[in-house]
Amino acid sequence: MIAITLNSWPQTVPPSLVNDPLLWVLRDHFGLIGTKYGCGIGACGACTVHVDGEARRSCVTTAREVAGRRIVTIEGLAQSGALHPVQQSWIAESVPQCGYCQAGQIMQAAALLARNPHPSDAELTRVMDEVLCRCGTQARVRRAIRRASALLSRAPAGSLQEAGRDALAP
Amino acid sequence: MTLSRRKLLKACGWSAAGLTVAAYTGTPARAGILPVLPPRSRPGSREASAWVSLRPDGLVQILSPRQEMGQGVSTAFRQIVAEELGVPLDRVLLILPRTDLLPVTPSTVGSDSMAEYSPLLARAAATLRETLRSRAAKRAGVAASSVEEAAGGFRLPNGERVGFAALAQTSGRVVTAADALPGMVLRSMSGPEHPRRIVGRSVPTDRIEAIVGGGEVLYAGDVTRPGLVEASLVRPPQLGASLRGFDDRPARLVPGFIAALPLATGVAVVAETRGAVERAVAALDARWSVPDQPVTQKAVDAAIDIDKHLLAGSLEHSVLRQGRLGSGQAPWDVDLRVDVPMAAHAGIEPRCAVAEFRTNGSPRLEVWTGTQDAFYVRAVLADALGLSEADVVVHSMRLGGSFGGRTICTVELEAAQLARQIGRPVKVRWSRPDEFQHGFHRPPSSHRIRGRLDAEGRILDWWHAFASGHVIFTSAAMPPLLQTVTSLVADPGVGRGANLPYAVRRAARVEFADVRLPVATGPWRGLGAGPNVFAIEVAIDTLARRAGLDPLAFRLNNLDASQARLRRVLERVAERAGWAGRPRAGQRRYGLACGVYKETAYAAVVAEVSVGRVGSAPRVTRLWCAHDSGLVINPDQVRAQVEGNLVWGLGMALGEELQVRDGRIGTDYFTDYALPRFSDVPAMTIDLVQGGEAPSRAGETAIVAAAAAIANALAGDRAEAVRRLPLHGQRGAG
After folding, report:
1. Which residues in chain B have their CB less than 8 angstroms from residue A142's CB?
2. How are beta strands B161-163 and B153-155 bridged, if at all?
3. Which residue of chain A comes nearest to B635, CA vs CA?
4. CB B412 within 8 A of CB B355
5. Contact indicator for B642, B702 with CB cutoff of 8 Å
6. What pLDDT shows up at residue B707?
7. Residues near A113 by beta carbon (within 8 Å), at least 6 away in sequence
């Protein structure tokens, strides 16, 4: 049995699942189905979640490896019933087509902006190159991140650290 | 045998294949020997009347005949219905194809939703509106003509308002449209004399809150059922391999293991959790017979080598024959060989299905899956499991990308068979390697194009011969007997887009051979139109250089009045991209191409390509596209489709290629497949032409021009054209 903080709630992972990929523990045990399976080797980014604020590929991370850590999934990104600025920007730019990779894109972008709210083009490109989209939404992803960056510069400092506080317990 | 151009263009998808095959063999498709190819006709107003209804709670419900896979059909359908009924968009719900609710409908292919379904849907919604008006009039005892529309309902002559909800409650059941009324104006489809509220406006894609928020059941993998178990298959390690036997004793030691069961496609491993499935799969020892002569890339290349086919005589299928390409003429001005490799769909969602088999009472199978063809899946499942179609319910879940790759029945049959054998609901997931190894792919094709010019730089003679693996008659869904039968018939998917839009002064021949390859090939975005128009547009640019004419001027010079819409997109993209001042050589150079999709949609693209130092790969740094798909229901969603097509064209041009290696597909993961990445996608400028024509199609249009524009930019001002895709590894002369 290991303890984790999942979308701001204390949770435990049963012993039978501690060596399973975090992706399946999140989806099939906790019912957090927003995180998607795309490749199983961490090469597409569809399964991206935050571990202590950093973007991680949950398909190649076991539950044991995140014992005691803070995990935020796409379901935990909104706060106080308000979507995260990245999510808001995703809607404003109408980014998704099929939508399947989008939770991973959003989590990757949110982690980037939490670390650096105003990334250079080079940094933004380097970070977002790690997440694949087959529909061809990349140009909109870029616009949405720039929009979120502008929204964040108006948001009170430190609010990102509270991400997931009000997400429903799974 | 040959198929006329008209027949070729009419023949479309499985329904055509089914009819054709039945005609050739005299055997009904359900005789047990042949697979199920449901001969489904296109829906008419009778079917459409079931698509729209008013629910007892006053909400309008669409039973969508078309599947959502990111192309935005669910958004556009809701806009059309909201427009016709005069209700806000959020009062219109949409249910993806469910076989127990919807009349039988063809597969979601061919970018047909707006062109062929939206007018029917608009008429059904308008008919429902008039049915409700009559009901309101009858209830108040007034003439229907005196009942005026008001927001969310009607206004009676005495000023009283009657809401839709009240009208729905009168009967206490769902209200559907009666037969279509003649002479009814469709406000969603009419010209500017009928101002529209919702159609023509950009609204975000349907379900966007659920997509960006997570936590909602949208895709097949999100579905869960009480008692659900998980499964994967251990599949043949090589093309043509077959199962000799397996030892599941090590797998049995895995906690949570339930069973290992042989199926036609491999050994299924069933366990309580996904983690247990993965451990049991790793532990299972399966033994395979592999062919003595493994499939090789060389054999695939040789099978479609167009020059070998031409040496053997004329090709089996003719698309166009005009005049006579006589011998003893002047030498060809252009004699070009173009090769396009095999490519993957590579949707980010690997396929997945959940099946639940109930035996209390009469047997009943329910399946949740992301499919482009719920009714085909139902027919295959009913046939394979010996059930009546009424006892099989297929729920279409949103597709995480499909692009032609989800048109057959695969994972659904595996899940259904396991659910029956295990006696619990089963979720089967394909892995990423399963997708590359056991899906089907865009066939490789090989083209020989020859052309002659007259003194004015007009096309005098044109000869395009090509050979390709199959598209519609895919071996991924057809057993050997049917493959043999269909070898007599032109594969309509292979020929798509091969018809030349340019006028030819003297003689033209367009012909092809469709070849049964030892790799599974099938429909891929645009079918043959991607490779065919690519080859044509590369050859056209080469002819232009030979004539010493600007590529734009050459194209305009060779289009006659019947191609006014193609001419218009060419002129508009040239204007937007500042084509006249753009260099054709040097480190930053520009290329142009255009094309027509299914005779109804038009695109022209200008690409800016940067060619760096010796040995460095070319980069596409900007794209412009002018696009004409007729009346636009949702401009932002059409733009999104154009963007997607441009990115697909970029991937097709620069990096995408599957090869056979070691007797198998040489790619298991995205690490070995060059999908366009974030850094590859340039700024895109899209100009939507709206000239008042009927809505046509946007889902596969711009791809026909994008790859060729990039290749033409790379070729620059050299006589030598790009000869094969993908371009990476090839460098333009600086």
Report:
1. 678
2. antiparallel
3. A94
4. yes
5. yes
6. 97
7. A85, A86, A119, A145, A148, A149, A152, A160
